[in-house]
Amino acid sequence: MTGAPVHGAAPVTGAWREGHPLGDRRFADVGDLHLETGGVLPGVRIAYETWGRLSPAGDNAVLVLHALTGDSHVTGPPGEGHPSAGWWEGVVGPGRPIDTNRWFVVAPNVLGGCQGSTGPASRGPDGRPWGSRFPFLTIRDQVAAEVRLADALGIRSWALVVGGSMGGMRALEWAVGEPDRVERAAVLCAGAAASADQIAWAHAQLTAIRADPGFAGGDYYEAPPGHGPHTGLGIARRIAHTTYRSASELDTRFGRAAQAGEQPLGGGGRYAVESYLDHHADKLVHRFDAGSYVVLTQAMSSHDVGRGRGGIAAALARVRARTVVVAVDSDRLYPVRHAEEIVEHLPPGRGVLEVVSSAHGHDGFLVETGAVGGLLRRALTTPVPVVARAG
Fold it and tell me: Which helix (H) or strand (E) holds 355?
């Protein structure tokens, strides 16, 4: 039933809001932001977390950028303010590939997100949630806010900027748009521009959310508890999660098995794979926000490093960072050819292509922490050729 309460009495939004436990979040007020498509987003706040200590020389900073439904809690236990453990536990932490005994790690919640950074669930200048009034954002706008965060933290240059999926788009945009501030970049499971196929999958997800009466055009934040666009957001998650995993993995894990205790023949029960998708949908509506899902998905569809820069080849020629581009061989959303295109157009000696073998599809960059962590450890310990800085 569209707009009705779902299992577990989900809140109207899973967004972090003022008055909720802070957890390990910190906040930086970075001012008014001029947007790529015009207009100004006033009073931008970025939520972030850090691990380790910035060196006196400021040369050990690593920026970790999350994917669509991720957040700043990259590593660490669950607790007040953080209902789940960190999403990259096997990669970031003491003694891990991105070793927080050596590196100062910064992870922001993306602009437009829902875990403390300015987004649709945040209060606008009039004290009411932004909702439908929240402006269209691009990946460049998100990076512009992260540049402001770096300035606020006193970080002139990143030893590494790394991200996967939407985070990979931002990592690449950092390398292209701020070439003098990125020594190394790691772009995981992302391309130089969104493809028609990716935009098509995104459109189906956005349509599901907008078609839910509980979405109310984006102005649902003051609805009674337990109501909201849960059905639409859940359908969007089911569509997305199917693209995140490979067909072979789903066949191997579930086949045509029925969910335990249910009989799908005759329509009275579910197949196990249907239950799996329902589970992920239910989890998301308890921890995420439909408005942010719309804003961030639109930003991903806007992704194109070549826009206004003479095309992709000309844009990538600007990169100074030693750039590791990582693809997963079973990723059907961001196939290997997208990584190959990036490396093809990077300046000589600046790009390295790495292909991780995994049955887990697009989510391989999150699941294959051993392989991915090894690549990042090597990236951080490989010297970067000295390039004269502009200015």
Answer: strand 351-356
Overall number of domains in the chain: 2
Catalytic residue, candidates 331, 345, 358, 360? 331
Looking at the fold, whether 207 and 228 belong to one and the same domain comes out as yes
Q: 329 an active-site residue?
A: no
Q: What is the band of 324 on the pLDDT scale with cuts at 50, 70, 90?
A: very high
| Residues 144, 260 share a domain | no
The reply to whether 55 belongs to the active site is no
Strand partners, 353: 325
131 and 51 in a common domain:
yes
Distances (CA, A) of 373 to 89, 285, 356: 10, 30, 11
What is the pLDDT, as a whole number, of residue 385?
Answer: 67
pLDDT value at residue 269: 95
Q: Give residue 268's pLDDT.
A: 87
pLDDT digits (tens, 9 = 90+) for 103-126: 999 999 999 999 999 999 999 999
User: One of 72, 165, 302, 330 is an active-site residue; which one?
Assistant: 165
Catalytic option among 66, 241, 360, 362: 362
Q: Domain range for residue 217?
A: 198-300
Annotation says 331 is catalytic: yes
**256: CB partners within 8 A, 6+ apart:** 271
